Amino acid sequence: MTTISSNLQAIQAQIFSVAEDTGRKPSEIVLLAVSKTFSAVQVAEAFSAGQHCFGENYLQEALDKQQQLVHLPIVWHFIGPIQSNKTRAIAESFAWVHSVDRLKVAQRLSEQRPLHLPPLQICVQVNISGEQSKSGVSPEDVLDLVKALVELPNLKLRGLMALPAPSESEAEQLAAFKQVADLQFKLKQQGFDLDTLSMGMSHDFPRAIAAGATIVRVGSAIFGARH
Ligand SMILES: *Cc1c(COP(=O)(O)O)cnc(C)c1O
Asked: Under 8 Å CB-to-CB from 66, ≥6 apart: which residues?
């Protein structure tokens, strides 16, 4: 067995056991393999080990890999910062976008989504940690963005994505993820039909699952350290 396939097995086992321990259904948690900086060969290797969803941060790198891997039915997720002049290629080449944090970008993605494709699946990126990161809408502004987003015809709003500031403390990690889950809960109470919480990475995904994550975005624990 290769390193990638044994890493995938170990992570799936961990997802399963954390879900069981925290009263979650393992089947409602999707592992998104974050393949930024890793090669098409490594993605293909993960695919043949049963991994079908891959996340990419950098558009050109992602398009190059997609071209090399057109023969594989991979579900591609865009998870990186979005420049508005890149929305057309994103709308044309991905099934999901996790990093929507402003209406202008959402409007462009909707206008530019090819009509022969299903609606683009969207998460709104929330900036839970305040000043730490420039990406993400602030919790106070989420409701307005969500209200506008659900009116856009070629997008399907699925939920929230978060990338909390790194913390060594597992309690702090859990608290940050719970804030995101709480925001999503409030939006659902207001009538928005949301089923996705994209949160948790290699170092903190067990806490994200404990707080309610339905997609964990794991890179280095699958592919090794990035250089
Ligand atoms: C790189 C990245 C990940 C994966 O990080 P790892 O620490 O390698 O698991 C997850 N989400 C986003 C948005 C990323 O940029």
From this structure: 74, 76, 93
